[in-house]
Amino acid sequence: MCRSVDVRTAVLAKNDGLAAELRADLADRRVTAVNLLSSPGSGKTALLELVLRRSLERGVAIAALTADLATENDARRLARSGAPVKQVLTGGLCHLESAQLRGLIDGWLPDGTRLLFVENVGNLVCPASYDLGETLRVTLMSVTEGEDKPLKYPAAFGAAHLVVLTKTDLADAVGFDGAAFTEAVERVNPGVEILRTSAKDGQGVNSLLDRVLAVADGDAPHTPLLAADHLRAHGHDHGPEHSHGHAHDHAPARGHDHDHGPAVRPRTA
């Protein structure tokens, strides 16, 4: 058991180091990377397609990378937006890692790209442990998945800079309890913003894009409580300079830290 824990810790530590390097490189290129986490069927591909379209309509240079175990279906759907899209087939791997992301964007990501959305493998377990070097981690779930999902997957929701609720047009039909969902999110990630969206009627799509662009323009994102605890445990009570070159004051527990990202994960076997 100890050996298993040691190996996992070493793997995650190596990933964290590579993620920090990638985050710095993307910041130098002024690219804001957004890591999208959700279960299968959450509707994140449909939502992302709308975000890509709205971004291009505003003249914002955007690209997307989508990961699946098999098929290029999602890449074809996203490419309909007109944005540059790259499909990743993981061959059975349940998540992306920072070294993979580095290899995928090198030589592909167009110059001048401002926003890079990474649609991670549909899974709320494995991806939650791996920092990709992203600027923002967004965890999504649909109203059809149950109000207590954040409590069942506290690492995925607890390390998110932003939580997005999808398929809100179905909320009444499935009897979704919005208050119970908000309470569950607050228990694992106090203070995080929840955006309510619908790819069917477009609700919340502009708001999501606005939040991402605000961070790209220098606003510091929410710091998850788990991330704050992780930073304090490693002697970093104050975040470093903002990754796009804007200095910010950082509170130790509920402040914001742009450079470190969601570098929080349970160290268990």
Tell me the layout of helices and strands.
Blueprint lengths: L1 H27 L3 E6 L6 H14 L4 E7 L4 H7 L5 E5 L8 H8 L9 E5 L16 E7 L6 H4 L1 H5 L3 E5 L4 H4 L3 H11 L4 E4 L8 H12 L8 H9 L36
Strand order in space, largest sheet: 3-2-4-1-5-6-7
Q: What's the domain count?
A: 1
From the spread of the alpha carbons, the general shape counts as globular
Cα-atom Rg, whole angstroms? 17 Å
Order of helices and strands: HEHEHEHEEHHEHHEHH
Topology, number of strands = 7
CATH homolog superfamily? P-loop containing nucleotide triphosphate hydrolases
CATH architecture assignment: 3-Layer(aba) Sandwich
Residue windows where pLDDT falls under 50 for at least 5 positions: 231-269
Relative helix content: 25-40%
Work out the helix count.
10
Instruction: Give the assembly state of these chains.
Output: single chain
Q: How much beta, percentage-wise?
A: 5-15%
Average pLDDT: 85
- Determine and state the CATH class: Alpha Beta
Based on helices, strands and strand pairing, what is the structural class?
A: alpha/beta
For the termini, the CA-CA separation is: 7 Å
Major sheet details: 7 strands, parallel
* CATH fold descriptor: Rossmann fold
